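Methods — Computational structure assignment.
A single polypeptide chain was analysed. Its primary sequence is given first, followed by the predicted tertiary structure written as structure tokens.
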Amino acid sequence: MTALSLSNTVNVETISYTNADEAHRLMTTALSRFMTLLESLHADDWSKPTACTAWNVHDMLAHQAGGYASGTSYKEMIRQYTSKPKPGQLPEDAINDLQVGERADKTPAELIAELKQVGEIAAYNWAYGFNAIKWIATPHPVGGFMPIRHLMWVIHSRDTWMHRLDVCRATNRPFEQTREHDGRIMELVVLDTAKKLNKKLNGQAITLSLTGMAGGTWQIGKGEPAAEMEMDALDFNIFVSGRFSYEEGMKRANISGDTALVKNAFKDFLILY
């Protein structure tokens, strides 16, 4: 292996899952940092395009305000989540369209005020509430078969974290990171990545080395790794969320060993954000 010593490699199977208290901390920290970023933006930032090509920065804020509003009550969750998809559209895209469309005429100040109002309520409910449905498992076209708890405990904070990165890149702002928060978000991303990769590695193993403050080195699969992929941790999230094309992702990765194994494993690869 070329990037990092194997002594620093962590077996992905040792990554612990989250719990309600940690999920609440991750969500409130992700939301707080997102709010700080939003309040630093200038008037000309709101119309800037983002890596989510259908949205500008204003649309992204509208999506977040709507998303957190869905966590304020069962009634609002059901209202949003029963949005009917267009032909060929994913269910969450129909929900996103509703969230953004209902807020298209709101000013950034109004959207920030809404997010402040609903954010802490939703974060608490997602962590500790909605127990009537939290353990129900449902199929998802990207995330696979998973309990609703995973959406509430992992994906919601990841979504806010990722959209903060989107806005930072769109507006040329620094992306605030700490090892405790961003490193843990990254661990949970790697855990979901491994679940999907294991099905594509044909019983082999790889080392995933992600650089930067949130990064680390993990073995995915059993036995001696046949290859290593090294990549910037933030770029990796942009890639596996579908914001980079496969070609762009591979261009940004440094692959050694069995390159075909890695390239085939990451082809048509997405995890849920």
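Note: Confidence is low (pLDDT under 50) at residues 1-6.
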